[in-house]
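Bump. Still looking for LysR family transcriptional regulator structure tokens.
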Amino acid sequence: MNANRHGQIKLSQLRALIAVAERGNFGEAALQLGLSQSAVSHAIATLEEILGVVLISRGRHGAYLTPVGDRVLVYARQMMQSLDGMMKEANLAKGLQGGQVRIASFRSVATHILPEAIAQFRQRFPEITVLLTDHEDLPEVEQTLREGRADIGFTYLPTDDDFEVWELLQDEFVALFPPTFKLKSKRLTWEELAHHPMIMPPETDATMLQFYAHCLKFSCTLNVAYRVNTDSTIVSMVARGLGAAVLPRLAAEPIPTGLQVFSLPVPIYRVIGIAVLADALQVPAVFAFLDILKCKDLLMSKP
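Sorry for the wait, here they are.
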């Protein structure tokens, strides 16, 4: 077909072809499209003239695609699907011209993951406001989601069925020792951990419950000298030689130069996940932010 004839093909002609193929009858296709039968017949005839081939075989018992008509139908459907895709993208863009995304997080994710995610999001969607609330207690994040005060939250996996979740990363619990500490062997032992003075979060701290249960499993009773709420304070105290500590690596960042970092005798990880309330209706901006959070390049930029 001559290239200058492409522009003569109209979407109405493609819709007519698809309708006739599906109904097998010009009259029923016309009813489906809300047109007269003569209008549908004219659209098909014009398309056949432009293409220079017969697409529909007309007879007493209905209308049937010719072999070439059957092949052309595939492209007609693809073109209509592409048009639908164009409309969806346009509608999505219109939904991303304003509004806001509300995020609830705990400190380590808010400090080390979200700044890069928000920067990428604002670069792509500068007119959308991002509201971030930083919670000390993990249950507060989940409650904020349940009450509809946040669209996206960060929690530990597994979690309740109230949420739809995606794994973000696995954060290893590490032992932090002062610069002067000397390891007795190549690897840290439970005995060394049990005998060293420890600076630890409270026993009820949601972040540490998994680790405390891990210690009990291996009959390790910690010698806790201090109970401290704030991760950064714990790290500073270890750096000053006041004791050792165990924290998730992300919570301990930035780790001061000289501080010694060891894996536990049996490693353990907290699994951090992205959560939204299950079955909640989300605005396009929320889906756009979730796409950025799921990007592997984002995780590569974390400390």
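Residues 67-95 form the longest helix (29 residues).

Edit: fixed formatting.
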